[in-house]
Structure formats: structure tokens, C-alpha cells
Specification:
Layout lengths: L3 H15 L1 H9 L4 E3 L13 H19 L3 E3 L1 E3 L5 H10 L5 H7 L1 H25 L5 E6 L4 H16 L3 E11 L4 E2 L5 E16 L6 E7 L10 E4 L4 E8 L2 E6 L5 H7 L4 E7 L18 H8 L5 E4 L12 E4 L5 H9 L30 H10 L3 E14 L7 E10 L5 H8 L3 E3 L2 H11 L4 E2 L1 E2 L5 E2 L2 E4 L5 E3 L3 H6 L18 E3 L5 E4 L3 E2 L1 H6 L1 H4 L8 H6 L5 E4 L6 H13 L6 E5 L2 E2 L16 H8 L1 H8 L8 E2 L2 H28 L13 H22 L6 H19 L3 H4 L1 H19 L4 H15 L21 H24 L9 E6 L2 H9 L1 H8 L4 E4 L6 E6 L1 H8 L3 H6 L3 H10 L1 E4 L2 E4 L3 E6 L4 E6 L2 E6 L4 H22 L8 E7 L7 H8 L1 E5 L7 E7 L2 E9 L1
Parallel strand pairs: 1-2, 3-4, 8-11, 9-13, 17-27, 26-27, 28-29, 30-31, 38-39
Antiparallel strand pairs: 5-6, 5-16, 7-8, 7-15, 9-14, 10-11, 10-12, 16-18, 19-25, 20-25, 21-22, 21-24, 23-24, 30-37, 32-35, 33-34, 36-37, 38-41, 40-41
Helix pairs in contact: 1-26, 4-6, 12-13, 19-20, 20-21, 21-23, 21-25, 21-26, 22-23, 22-25, 22-27, 23-25, 25-26, 27-28, 27-29, 33-34
């Protein structure tokens, strides 16, 4: 059994002690460059299975490129700022709110955040190294370091210089739990059931007339400033009874509205939506919310109908949409267009302030039910219907988000959308669907907010004067020094940077704005920060842009997007050339892994059970872009397959030692069909795997390599068992070359076992290189690829398997030779395989002869009318039809498929065909025909069969007694059955120096019964 734990730990120690990775890096210096940009994992703790999968895929490409002789830039890196770390530190010290953090001390809090993220980064370095993932961990980029922070500041300055940085009052997504703004990509959508409500708002000056509006966010009605109608839809005024008239969309006034409201609605007037523009209504809560009067005075369009064809449809609701410009980006757009302000005064925790009447102290979203109760009290709630829909949640704390109107700093990117889509056309995406998804995301981009109202992050480098209100954007510490700034700290984090002041030209003092930068900007700036730019230019000039990036498909809206936005702002071009996108990890039932479901599997569980190589080999075989349903059974099969290759390598070393031959020094002489076939498969695999790596279709590589070593083990070695003894050189040459080239390629997927096999071969065959990773990538010899031979061998294997199936049917084991097999086929390729590979097929199937016939001449075919089918189809005419069917007509139906008989058409369904085999024959199918074997055993064939069975029994006894191939024995076989004519062959095959058919009194005695014959086998080890 393969002791993967011992081997992997041994290899890790060997790599460290021998400095294999640093030497490899040195070897590539100055050669053709390859820039891999690491997508930074967040330093939240130990690796999860997604990290393991993601980084194993990356390592495949890096190892391949190094073996190709590239100068590979492979700097590791992490995401370290942001809310996850804040939450961890808050939990550690029981800090519930932002005020708790301030009271705890920002100085102390930041130091704890630095400590936490630094420790986790080092822990993740060790975990990645344990997986055999080679990156430059000694120089990993850490966004918490000043050099990285300054790289982000440089981007902010660049955006400012290009007029792509602005401060704006916007309605933005807000997490009331975290007390901060959220960018679009920081929201996760989850399906949840919520109340959707129909509310009637009274039309001003029209007694008893109402607009019927609809919303799924009751709390936002407190900030309602308009109603949206679609100018292109038809609307109706309906009689709702009780002296009330309601206005709604015509398309929603029928059965749906009746079902919702529960009463018939009579149409009394019909008109287009544009007729509603400007009609005023009265907000029912105007007595509670005093701000409404002032807003109406300043903005006359407040509490009127606004037109919007984009955001009003007949998909749901009433066709009149509640509009609160302070509570949603779409509402904000409509409000901005019509000079209706974004009114929203909740605080950072979602709490309504004291001037909101009965709603003061309520919490947005959480207290939706209390707002519904208020609607009931005001008798304006028409209906409440539960609805399931996707709603945004904070990806950090997982609570539902709200909307809030605040001042934030933004990157202006909406006008870059088309340019970014065009830029993406030059990027290679694997799979292709990734490009479509990314282009779609880019096409819907909004200006990105870049600020957060938290503590742990890159401070925004904007200083504003407390006297004249002018502001400056600073790109570095060096610039601060030039500006004669005071109190420049050693660490650029809050709170220390907050004490840094800059003298203003007006005589006032500039103070830094208190916000931090969204952590997405940290990750988005990695493409140049990873290269120490802008402080160093040489690395950037040599490597930028990145040749390759790789992340999960969720990063279409995350890191891929952030890289593109940041790079387009900074350089007007994309920062990556090729993208590989993998899927997500689910359990065997397809359920997303989560702690709450109890179905999370740690990578350490898999490593402990089957090893890191198995983890890599299994996960990296998943098709690009597709999710993987984790299966212990499938992972176990990968482990067993790796063990097969290890056993082949052991067989090679033992076989070469026994033969006294060093296969590394052999030349390709006296190669037979089997060798040429196996070397053709090797070179085809090298060619195909190289091509896959070149276009980053890396998910297909593991199975290509697996197919090669399984073919070597299950086909070639089986074909050459006897040849290995009589002519060892071509066999050793072939196995050595296949294994040697194979472990080079496999080292990109399963580095531990590949290194171990290489080191064993290095010792056995006096190889020079220190590591398999130091070897050059194999080159395919195209002249050795024989497509015809491979196709013939494929057919031959199918025929052999079919013969073995026929043997199994007849219960005749493969050790019993058979006189003849007939391959019945009209396929030219199959017939050619039999004729050209006749000796090979006969040897493997243990036949004395094999023939090809278009149809088996000894087969009798009996064709009858299918009375049931004819009776069912032709009823009363059946008897007449059956009577008209003679043997000639039946045969014609069988061959042609359709024949006219007694004015009707008969098909193969109307006949039954039975094939009658000759006595003693067995049959089995293969894809191009059938095989037929003669199972009769003549005395000569039977004797040979007994000899083969006895040989097998002796070999099993040798193995059971722990004998090696070179250990000789004296053998005695006693039986009533005469095997003397086969004595010489048995002796040679079992490694016996002497053999006798008389009892020699050896102590190692075994009784064996083969069919009806008894054999007494005994031996003595010499």
C-alpha cells in the first residue's frame, strides 16, 4: 500500500533542504517571461476546499511554464483589509458596535487587526506549501504594508487626474449591521419570502380616487416622494366599490388583481400612461413626517407621478411603482432626472431619527411589519401577498441590506463600459462562456463607490482644508513630505494617518477624510502592486500585463471586474491576457457546502485520507466553469489510479534490476508492434497535453495522463509479460521512456508522487537532475505517432475483450487454449486490425487461430413471422398475410427492412430472427460485429491448459512465500495427469532450477485441484 503521508512529508522536507524551488527560480532568470497574477485569498484562517482546488489549478500552470523554461513571476499574495478581519477582532474582544471599537481604542484595534491578518497569512503560506503549491511566499504581497498602500494611493491620484474620481450624494447599498456602504459585488443574493403590499395613495383634489401602488419594501414608504408610471402602457380607472376609484395598469386589472384584492373591478375609464404625468397625490403619512412639506416646497415634482419606461412593467404589482429616490439606485435615477431628491435619513445602523413621528427609532427592513401595521391604521393597505424573490445580503455578515443616501467617493466608469467590453475581446477565456458572462457584467456597470465608513483598510488619500474646503489627493509618503505634511506615521493605517495634516495655500490646515478605501480596490490594484509599481519601473516594464489569472466563476462580478476597472483607469488597457474560470464546490447531492448544513469537507480531511496528490488530481479534473459535486468514492478512485502508476514504476525498477539492464541507456532497437503502439500513445499524449496547457484547458490534462498510465499498465505490460523474459530490452526501453516522460507531465498535477518516483529512478538508473521539476518539458516526436496503429490496437483490444466475454459465457478460462475464433464483421478497420495484429490477438486471447468473415458461415439463422405483431397491426388480415410469407420473403424483410406483402408493408418488427450457434461455440458482440469461439478442448489443448494453470499456481505460491523474481527454486509436481511434455516450459516460467514429476520430499507442499485433476506441488528455495 502506498504510504502517501510518509512520502509527502519526505518530499516536502527534500524540497526545503535541497532548495529545489529557489534553484528552479534561479534557472529561469532572464529567459522568456511569464507573469502569473495571484488572485489574493482572504486571510481569514485555514484553507478551505475551494482554496485548495483554486491554487492547485494555478500550480499546474506554473509548474508547466517553469519546465518550459520560462522566467515565471509567481509572487503569492493576500487580501488582508476589510470587514472579515474587523469582525474576527470584534468577536475576540466582544466589541458589538463601531462605538465599542472607538472606546476599545483605534490604536489597539488596528494593531490587533495587523496581528490577526499577518498570522493568518503565514498560516496560509504553510497550508499552500503543504499542498505542493510553489509560489514566492517569502515576498508575498501584503496590502497592509506601506508599499502596497502607496500603490493604491497612486491609483486614486491617477483617477483624480483623469477626472474619474468624484464625491457624490448617492443612494447606495448599505449594511446596517456593519455600518458601512457596500459595493455591488459585495452583495450576495438569496431567495427569501417577504410581504409584497398593495397600497392606495389618495389623488390630490379628487375625492375617492386613489393610485394603487405596489412594493416589497414597506419601510421605504416613509421615504416615498413619487409614483412611477410607464408612458407606453395602457392604464384604467376602476370602480373598486364603497365609492372608491383606483388607477392601475390595464394589463394587471383583470384576474390577477381580482385574485389579489378579492373582489371584481369594473373599468370605467381607459388611457395611456403618459396622461398620468404630473398628477399630484397626498402621502398618507404627511402628518407624521414633517420633512415632506419642506421637500415639496423646494422640489415641486415631489409627490407627483413621474414617467419611466425602464422600471415599470406588467411583470408584477399594479403597474404603478412606489418611488423613493433615497432608497434604491433605480429610484435615484428617476428622481435625479425629475429633480426629486434622494430623501433618506436613517443612520448607519438603519435607525429612523427622532423627527420621523411614529416611525422614530424603528429599524429599516427589520421592522417592516410595523410599517405594514401603520398602513392598516391609516386604512390604506389594500392587500398583502407573500412573495419569494432574490434579495441582496451583505457577503460578510449575511444580513439583508438596506439603502441609504450618503456622500461617498466614486470611480467614474459608466462611460468606460463599451471600451472595457472591446478590451475584453483580446482576452482568452476558459471556458468561452466566461467571456459572455464578463461582457454582460461590464455592460451593466455603474460608477463604483470606493469608500467605507470603517476602520481597518487603506485610508483614502484625500486631505480637505477646514477653512476653504479645497481638497488634494496624495499618491505617496514622498508627496506628503513635499507638501510639508506634519505627523507622517510609520504605518499609514488609521488612526495614525488621521493625525497627519497638510498646510493649505489659504493658510488653513488640511485633514485627511476619515473614510477608508473599499477592500476591492486593494485586490483591483494587485496587477501593478504585485510588481512593486509605481516605486519600481523595471519589473513592470518587463512583465505587465499578466499573462494568466485564474479564479472561481463568482469572480466575474468580483476580482475579474475589479482588475479591469482599476487597470482601465490607470493604464487604459486590461491587465490580463488569459483567464481560467473554475466552478464552485458542492456536496455529492449538489448542495452548496455550508457549516449550517454540516456538509463542509475540509481539504485536510481529504489529505489525511488519500493525500495531497489525490486532492489535486481529483479536483483539477473538473471541467472548466463547472461545479464539482464532491464524492469520496471518486476521490478514492483517483488515489487507487495513482497507486497503479506507482506499482508500474516499482515493476520497472525491479524488472531492470533483475535483468541487469539500465533502461536509461538503451536505444530504440528491435521494437515490436506493442512498443511502437505504446510509444505512439506516449508521443500523442505529450503533444495533446502540451497543446492543452498552451490554451489553458488544464482541466483536461489529468485524465489524459491517467489514460496513458492505465494503458501502460493494463494493456502494454499485459501484452509483453512473456516478451519481457525473452526480449527484455525493447520492453524495458518502452516502459522506462513512458514512465519517465509521464512523471514529468504528471508532476504538474501530482508533484509528490512524481518526485518520489523520479528520485527512485534517479537512484536506480543514475540520473543527474536533482528534481523532476528541474527537467525540461517533454517534446513529442511526431514521427512516432502512428494513428493507424493506434486505431488498429483499439479495435484489437475490443475484439480481445469480446473473446474474453465469450469465454466467460462458456465458462472457459483464458488459460485454456482454444482452437479458433471467428470475427464476423463488415467493418474494414476491424478486419484490418485482425489481419495485421493476428499474432497479438491470438496470444492475448490464447487462441491457435483467428479468422475474419463478413458473416459467420457456420451460424444458422431461423426467421419466423411474428404472429403477435402482425395480428396487432393487421387484425382480420393477419392469417392471410402469415400464409403468404415464405422463407424467401422473410429473408428479404430481414435484409431490406421493409417489404410489401398482400398489399401491406411488413417491417423487421413483423418477424422474429433467431441465431442458432453450432455445438461447442460461444458468441459475444463488439462494436463492429461479433466474435465466435470454438470451445471444444482437444487432448493437446487440454494439456496445455493444465500446464498454464499449474504454472499460475506455482507463481502464486512463490508470491505467497515472499520470493523475488530472481530467487530460484527446486520444483516437484506429482499428479495422475501427465504434464511431462510441458515440463520445460513450466520450469522456465516459474524460475525453477530443477523440476521433477516425482515426489522429492520437499517440505513446502501444496495440494491443488484443477478441474477434475489433483496436483501435489512442492518446492524448495535455493
Amino acid at each position: 500500500m502506498y504510504d502517501f503521508k510518509a512520502v509527502e512529508l519526505e518530499m516536502l522536507d527534500y524540497w526545503s533542504q535541497s532548495r529545489i524551488y529557489p534553484k528552479l527560480k534561479k534557472k529561469g532568470e532572464g529567459k522568456k517571461k511569464f507573469y502569473f497574477l495571484q488572485g489574493p485569498p482572504y486571510t481569514s484562517g485555514r484553507l478551505h476546499m475551494g482554496h485548495a482546488w483554486n491554487n492547485s489549478l494555478k500550480d499546474m500552470v506554473l509548474r508547466y511554464k517553469r519546465m518550459q523554461g520560462f522566467d515565471v513571476w509567481d509572487r503569492a499574495g493576500y487580501d488582508m483589509h476589510g470587514l472579515p478581519t474587523e469582525h474576527k477582532v470584534q468577536a475576540q474582544f466582544d466589541l458589538k458596535t463601531k462605538e465599542d471599537i472607538v472606546n476599545f481604542g483605534l490604536d489597539r484595534f488596528t494593531k490587533e487587526c495587523i496581528k490577526f491578518s499577518s498570522e493568518k497569512a503565514k498560516m496560509m503560506d504553510a497550508d499552500l506549501w503543504r499542498l505542493g503549491i510553489w509560489m514566492d511566499y517569502d515576498n508575498a504581497y501584503w496590502p497592509i504594508k506601506n508599499e502596497y498602500i502607496e500603490g493604491i494611493w497612486w491609483l486614486i491620484k491617477k483617477a483624480h487626474e483623469k477626472n474619474r474620481l468624484y464625491e457624490g450624494l448617492r443612494t447606495i447599498t448599505w449594511c446596517a449591521s456593519c455600518g458601512t456602504a457596500l459595493a455591488k459585488h459585495e452583495c450576495q443574493y438569496k431567495e427569501r419570502e417577504e410581504p409584497s403590499i398593495f397600497v392606495k395613495f389618495p389623488i390630490k383634489g379628487r375625492k375617492g380616487e386613489y393610485f394603487l401602488i405596489w412594493t416589497t419594501t414597506p419601510w421605504t414608504l416613509a421615504y416615498n416622494l413619487a409614483i412611477m408610471a410607464n408612458p407606453e402602457l395602457d392604464y384604467v380607472k376602476v370602480d373598486a366599490g364603497d365609492g372608491e376609484k383606483w388607477i392601475m395598469a390595464k394589463g394587471l386589472a383583470g384576474a390577477v388583481m381580482q385574485a389579489v384584492v378579492g373582489k371584481p373591478l369594473k373599468v370605467i375609464e381607459e388611457f395611456r400612461g403618459d396622461k398620468l404625468e404630473g398628477i399630484e397625490y397626498e402621502h398618507p403619512w404627511r402628518d407624521q413626517i414633517k420633512d415632506f412639506a419642506e421637500l415639496k416646497k423646494k422640489h415641486p415634482r415631489v409627490h407627483t407621478v413621474l414617467l419611466s419606461s425602464e422600471y415599470v412593467s406588467l411583470d408584477a404589482g399594479s403597474g404603478l411603482v412606489h418611488c423613493a429616490p433615497g432608497c434604491g439606485p433605480e429610484d435615484y435615477e428617476v428622481g435625479y432626472k425629475h429633480n426629486v431628491p434622494p430623501y433618506n435619513n436613517i443612520d448607519q445602523y438603519g435607525i429612523f431619527p427622532d423627527n420621523m413621528g411614529r416611525f422614530s427609532g424603528l429599524k429599516a427592513k427589520t421592522d417592516d411589519r410595523k410599517f405594514i401595521d401603520a398602513l392598516k391604521d391609516y386604512k390604506i393597505l389594500v392587500a398583502e401577498v407573500p412573495v419569494e424573490h432574490d434579495y441582496a445580503h451583505c457577503e460578510r455578515c449575511h444580513n439583508p441590506v438596506v439603502f441609504r443616501t450618503t456622500k461617498q467617493w466614486f470611480f467614474k466608469v459608466e462611460d468606460l463600459k463599451d471600451k472595457m467590453v472591446r478590451a475584453d475581446s483580446s482576452v482568452l477565456w476558459v471556458p468561452d462562456a466566461g467571456k459572455n458572462a464578463f461582457d454582460s457584467w461590464l455592460s451593466h456597470l455603474r460608477d463604483n463607490s470606493i469608500t467605507k465608513q470603517r476602520f481597518w483598510g487603506t485610508p483614502i488619500p484625500i486631505w480637505r482644508c477646514d477653512k476653504c474646503n479645497e481638497y488634494i489627493v496624495v499618491e505617496s509618503v514622498e508627496e506628503l513630505k513635499k507638501l510639508k505634511a506634519k505627523n507622517i506615521p510609520e504605518s499609514l493605517h488609521k488612526p495614525w494617518i488621521d493625525f497627519t495634516t497638510v498646510p493649505c495655500k489659504c493658510g488653513g490646515e488640511m485633514h485627511r477624510l476619515p473614510d477608508i478605501i473599499d477592500v476591492w480596490v486593494d485586490a483591483g490594484s494587485a496587477s501593478w502592486n504585485c510588481l512593486y509599481y509605481p516605486k519600481q519601473k523595471d519589473l513592470f516594464d518587463r512583465y505587465f500585463p499578466a499573462d494568466f489569472i485564474l479564479e472561481a466563476k463568482e469572480q466575474v462580478r468580483g476580482w475579474f471586474n475589479l482588475l479591469m476597472v482599476a487597470s482601465m483607469i490607470a493604464f487604459d488597457k486590461p491587465c490580463f491576457k488569459a483567464v481560467y474560470m473554475h466552478g464552485m464546490l458542492t456536496d455529492v447531492e449538489g448542495q452548496k457546502m455550508s457549516k449550517s448544513l454540516g456538509n463542509v469537507i475540509s481539504p485536510y480531511e481529504l489529505i489525511d485520507k488519500h493525500g495531497a496528490d489525490t486532492l489535486r488530481y481529483y479536483l483539477c479534473s473538473t471541467p472548466a466553469g463547472e461545479d464539482i459535486n464532491f464524492s469520496w468514492e471518486e476521490a478514492g478512485q483517483c488515489y487507487r489510479n495513482l497507486t497503479i502508476l506507482l506499482n508500474v514504476h516499482n515493476y520497472l525498477i525491479e524488472y531492470a534490476k533483475t535483468a541487469g539492464i539500465n533502461p536509461a541507456k538503451l536505444k530504440p532497437t528491435n521494437l515490436g508492434i506493442e512498443e511502437k503502439y505504446m510509444l505512439s500513445k506516449l508521443n500523442r499524449t505529450i503533444k495533446e497535453v502540451t497543446e492543452l496547457y498552451e490554451v489553458y484547458e488544464i482541466d483536461r490534462v489529468p485524465r489524459k495522463l491517467e489514460a496513458l498510465f492505465l494503458e501502460l499498465s493494463r494493456v502494454y505490460i499485459q501484452l509483453t509479460r512473456e516478451k519481457a523474459t525473452s526480449a527484455p530490452k525493447p520492453v524495458l526501453y518502452t516502459i522506462y521512456n513512458v514512465v519517465f516522460e509521464l512523471i514529468k507531465m504528471l508532476s504538474t498535477v501530482a508533484p509528490f508522487i512524481s518526485e518520489k518516483m523520479y528520485l527512485n529512478m534517479k537512484e536506480a538508473f543514475a540520473l543527474k537532475d536533482e528534481s523532476v521539476a528541474h527537467l525540461p518539458w517533454p517534446k513529442a516526436d511526431l514521427k512516432k505517432i502512428d494513428e493507424k496503429l493506434e486505431k488498429q490496437m483499439e479495435n484489437a483490444q475490443a475484439i480481445i475483450q469480446s473473446i474474453l466475454s465469450a469465454r466467460e459465457k462458456a465458462q472457459v478460462g483464458v488459460r485454456w487454449p482454444l482452437r479458433e475464433a471467428v470475427v464476423a464483421t463488415e467493418n474494414k478497420d476491424a478486419a484490418s486490425a485482425v489481419m495485421d495484429l493476428k499474432e497479438l490477438i491470438m496470444r492475448q486471447a490464447n487462441l491457435k487461430d483467428i479468422k475474419v468473415e463478413a458473416a459467420f458461415s457456420k451460424l444458422k439463422v431461423e426467421i419466423k413471422a411474428n404472429a403477435n405483431a402482425i395480428g396487432k397491426d393487421f387484425k382480420q388480415n393477419a392469417g392471410r398475410i402469415i400464409a403468404a410469407l415464405d422463407a424467401k420473403t422473410l429473408e428479404k424483410i430481414r435484409k431490406e427492412g421493409k417489404v410489401a406483402v398482400v398489399d401491406v408493408s411488413l417491417t423487421k418488427d413483423h418477424i422474429s430472427v433467431a441465431e442458432i450457434l453450432p455445438k461447442g461455440y460461444s458468441q459475444a458482440e463488439f462494436r463492429h460485429g461479433n466474435v465466435y469461439i470454438d470451445t471444444a478442448l482437444t487432448p493437446e489443448l487440454e494439456a496445455e491448459g493444465f500446464a498454464r494453470e499449474v504454472t499460475r499456481r506455482v507463481q502464486e505460491l512463490r508470491k505467497k512465500n515472499g520470493l523475488r523474481k530472481q530467487d530460484e527454486i527446486e520444483l516437484s509436481i506429482v499428479s495422475d495427469y501427465d504434464l511431462e511434455q510441458w515440463g520445460k516450459e513450466i520450469k522456465a516460467k516459474v524460475g525453477a532450477k530443477t523440476m521433477s514429476f516425482a515426489d522429492k520430499g520437499f517440505q513446502n507442499v501444496h495440494e491443488e485441484k484443477i478441474k477434475d485433476q489433483n496436483f501435489r506441488i512442492s518446492f524448495r528455495v535455493l
